[in-house]
Design a protein that fits this description.
With 648 residues, this protein is α+β, with helices and mostly antiparallel strands. Among the domains are: 224 residues, Alpha/Beta hydrolase fold, catalytic domain (Rossmann fold, 3-Layer(aba) Sandwich), CATH 3.40.50; 30 residues, no CATH class. Strand 25 and strand 26 form a beta hairpin. The chain is globular and about 65 Å long.
């Protein structure tokens, strides 16, 4: 847990009693305020596949304004562009194991119909999965590097079959036909076994091992629980998986493919989110969700003990990856107050190299805020964890407005990661309480299932209690608190304005669900394997559950909204359709309530292009400033309703 940083200015004075108020005022730090353009000029970098000779890394970066793919020397240096798109975002998947060819991925401006692309030795980019309307997912390389695995729903839009593509001729063959709605998790190095998962409900899933030769499936778990395959051992004798069978948090297990016996490998007081072996099997990497922050262990498989990782002071290692020969490791290092930078580490020389410096040079690190984990009691005594950002300029004598931030999901989690958007809001003088209301992941399966079939009710009360907690903080102006969120968080925004209309002063709805009946009926076909689980958690729109779903859908109760609202939406969103936002805006406008609508024609579920992020987040702050900061209150009748349409 990170502790919040206060900077006090010590005044030397002869009469402290007479200057008590002045000293209180000085507990607030003066910070430089930055524009949204400056914050969005922070670079976002992802990936980090090593080339076959370890000379360079394949990465994704949005430095051009959208994501493109680049290579960068392993010891640091200039980026070399692989793609130069100005419209479609491309992402790095992997270098080929034995040459400099590359695999990339891209969708159609947010439609989530991903394809896999080859970038060959001549620089030509070719779509390897060109089937129209079919989605492809890269699963990984075969042990010999002569083929790779991928999933595609080209045969049936509802389910992903597993294919192997030969890279000598780029012909593919199906190795598992998915007729049962199972999801691929892992494949053994000898290609004989595939791990598959079947979703049962919000938390629980069954784990199977499929024998490629006999085409038989064997169920691994004996009790209903949450089970997820992690990796097969390098000698093909065992499957490692996580389960919460008999426990609140997921722990790591080993299943022997020959004896069928299971053994507990590792257990922590938090969820083990992932585990996997390096190419040669010398190390196992374990990820733990420790109070909303990644905790990583790299375990030597010979000694079964964690190895020492490079020291980065108060910053955290959030992700690691290895070269195929295990001589190099790449690491992402950052925190809530700094975006993650890419580093490399050479195991032979013990040297580390900083590859990126993604924080905009114009932003001083001391002006950014470190998040603090807090907990508060909800209406029924349930303890709610939250991530809290308090502006440096806030003090008891300089109270600031605040926002309750609700993550996506349901079942998501706000984590202690860097967010340019949140840091911009905080820099502009807004405190942010990112609530992990009941139903959030990471805090045990009991907490995770607490919001099943009561969305917009108890989870909404958790958000209201978050607002109440904020109002008790001496640095917060309790009369100026906004609720904001995206997707499920956008739904919570509309639920708050509809069902608790006097609790929050302004609402910010980022592509939020407003009609659960329509949303649950119109989920993308490739979500079919999760449909049953969604219906068990939220309600089945084709049954009597529809009565409750209509009751908790803000669209049908817009007459209750009385507070200013801003709505932002991508027109290509396949999850929350544009009509959701169109209709909620139209409904609220009938009340004469101030509404602003910002629509992006070239975005999907979330905004990925820098120019759109700048437009979106600046509009949000302008709207909040208008209605929450006294010196910017509109005159009567001004800014009642506006609409912004962002074109391609």
């Amino acid at each position: 847990m990170k502790h919040f940083l206060f900077i006090f200015l010590i005044l030397l004075c002869s009469s402290c009693k007479d200057n008590k108020d002045a000293q209180k005022e000085d507990t607030a730090m003066t910070v430089q305020q930055y524009t949204i353009e400056q914050f969005m000029d922070n670079e976002a970098v992802g990936g980090g596949s090593f080339s076959y000779d370890n000379s360079k890394l394949l990465i994704s970066s949005n430095r051009s304004g959208i994501y493109n793919v680049y290579t960068v020397p392993t010891t640091g240096g200039n980026y070399t562009p692989v793609t130069a798109s100005d419209s479609t975002s491309y992402f790095a998947e992997s270098f080929f194991p034995h040459d400099d060819r590359m695999l990339l991925s891209a969708d159609g401006n947010g439609d989530e119909i991903d394809h896999i692309f080859l970038r060959d030795s001549t620089g030509t980019i070719k779509d390897l999965t060109p089937e129209k309307e079919a989605k492809a997912q890269f699963y990984g390389w075969a042990k010999d590097g002569k083929s790779f695995y991928f999933g595609s729903n080209k045969m049936n839009p509802k389910f992903f079959d597993v294919y192997e593509m030969d890279v000598s001729n780029f012909n593919s063959k199906m190795i598992y036909q998915n007729n049962d709605g199972l999801n691929f998790s892992a494949i053994s190095k000898d290609k004989n076994h595939i791990a598959l998962v079947q979703s049962l409900n919000t938390n629980d899933s069954d784990l199977y091992v499929y024998n490629v030769k006999t085409r038989q499936k064997t169920k691994i778990n004996t009790n209903q629980s949450s089970n997820s395959a992690q990796d097969f051992s390098n000698d093909n004798s065992a499957l490692y998986y996580t389960t919460d069978d008999g426990a609140e948090f997921s722990y790591l297990m080993k299943y022997d493919l020959n004896t069928k016996e299971t053994t507990t490998v590792l257990q922590k007081p938090w969820d083990i989110m992932g585990a996997g072996f390096t190419e040669q099997g010398s190390y196992m990497v374990v990820y733990v969700n420790e109070d909303g922050k990644n905790a990583i262990e790299v375990i030597d498989t010979k000694t079964n003990k964690p190895i020492a990782l490079p020291d980065f002071g108060d910053q955290s290692i959030t992700s690691v990856g290895f070269s195929n020969d295990e001589k190099w490791m790449r690491l992402y290092v950052g925190g809530s107050n700094t975006p993650s930078n890419l580093f490399t580490y050479n195991f032979e020389t013990k040297q580390k190299y900083q590859i990126t410096n993604v924080l905009n040079d114009e932003i001083h690190p001391e002006d950014l805020v470190t998040a603090k984990v807090v907990r508060y009691k909800s209406f029924d005594g349930v303890e709610i964890p939250a991530i809290y950002y308090l502006p440096h300029q806030a003090s008891e004598n300089n109270k600031v407005p605040a926002m309750v931030w609700v993550h996506g999901g349901p079942g998501g989690q706000t984590r202690q990661n860097f967010s340019s958007m949140i840091q911009y809001m905080v820099n502009q003088g807004y405190a942010v309480l990112a609530v992990n209301n009941r139903g959030s992941s990471g805090y045990g399966k009991t907490f995770y299932q607490m919001d099943d079939l009561n969305h917009g009710e108890k989870d909404l009360q958790d958000c209201v209690e978050g607002k109440n907690w904020l109002a008790t903080q001496p640095e917060i102006d309790g009369s100026k608190i906004v609720i904001i969120g995206g997707s499920y968080g956008g739904y919570m925004t509309m639920a708050a304005l509809t069902y608790a209309p006097e609790e929050f002063d302004v609402g910010v709805n980022l592509f939020g669900v407003t009609n659960w009946i329509r949303t649950l009926k119109s989920i993308p076909p490739y979500w079919e394997s999760m449909r049953k689980s969604l219906y068990l958690e939220l309600g089945d729109p084709y049954t009597a559950d529809s009565v409750r779903l209509k009751r908790i859908s803000p669209l049908f109760h817009t007459d209750k909204v009385t507070k200013p609202l801003i709505v932002l939406q991508g027109s290509k969103d396949p999850r929350v359709l544009q009509v959701e936002s169109d209709e909620i805006v139209a409904g609220v406008r009938k009340n004469g309530v101030p509404v602003e609508y910002v629509l992006f024609e070239d975005e999907g579920h979330g905004f990925i292009k820098k120019e759109n992020q700048i437009e979106a987040y600046s509009r949000v702050v302008q709207f909040l400033d208008t209605y929450l900061k006294a010196d910017k209150q509109p005159v009567d009748g001004e800014l009642k309703s506006t609409e912004i349409k962002a074109e391609d």
